[in-house]
UniProtKB/TrEMBL annotation:
Record's protein name: Shikimate kinase
Subunit structure: Monomer.
Matching SUPFAM superfamilies: P-loop containing nucleoside triphosphate hydrolases
Binding-site residues for substrate, renumbered to this chain: 41, 65, 86, 142
Alphabetized UniProt keyword annotations: Amino-acid biosynthesis, Aromatic amino acid biosynthesis, ATP-binding, Cytoplasm, Kinase, Magnesium, Metal-binding, Nucleotide-binding, Transferase
Pfam family, one: SKI
Binding site for Mg(2+): 23
One example GO MF annotation: ATP binding
Length: 182
């Protein structure tokens, strides 16, 4: 089977709610195609020398979003696969910077999100006992923004990350079966 390869310098940006699999799917896709992978949250933490939870605690959400915007704008100057934090699209400057790019919206049901997030402690907005309620609220507010920036939409419910990466590669015209990937 002949496999199309992504053009040199290609960039793909993944967006979606917390727990949808942006980092997992993005890393699979990047590894399979020899592209660089950037998790915006990981890059932000590395640049700041502190965790997102610490930034939220000391700077508040507004302070975090300002740091996030600078990080994302810088990452968008690089080729590769970039996984944005779930709330990055709430910033108008980031939405504007995503125009004209391949932006993939990974979707999931609230129930699937609750299963995937579980008792995760590294997502400040997901702290608390009502994860489902928080996801419903985030989904209601963010889905219109994801829809605005996305050029491709892929549902991840009940799918292995390799299957999602395979669907994404096909949607990008790259081909290649990634379902055997972890």
């Amino acid at each position: 089977m002949s496999t199309a390869r992504p053009p040199r310098g290609r960039q793909v940006v993944l967006v979606g709610l917390p727990g949808v699999g942006k980092s997992t799917v993005g890393a699979l896709l990047a590894r399979k195609y020899g592209l660089d992978f950037f998790d915006a949250d990981d890059c932000l933490e590395e640049q700041q020398g502190r965790s997102i939870s610490e930034i939220f605690a000391t700077d508040g959400e507004a302070g975090f979003r300002a740091i996030e915007t600078a990080t994302v704008i810088e990452l968008l100057s690089r080729p590769g696969v970039i996984a944005l934090g779930g709330g990055a699209v709430t910033n108008e400057a980031i939405r504007a910077a995503l125009a004209g790019r391949d932006v993939v919206w990974l979707t999931q049901s609230v129930g699937q999100g609750v299963e995937r997030i579980g008792s995760s402690t590294h997502r400040p907005l997901m702290a608390g006992s009502d994860i489902a309620g928080t996801l419903r609220r985030l989904k209601a507010g963010r889905d219109p923004l994801y829809r605005q920036v996305a050029t491709i939409r892929i549902d991840t419910d009940r799918k292995h990350p390799g299957r999602v990466a395979t669907e994404l590669a096909a949607a990008l015209g790259w081909g290649q079966d990634l379902e055997g990937e972890d």
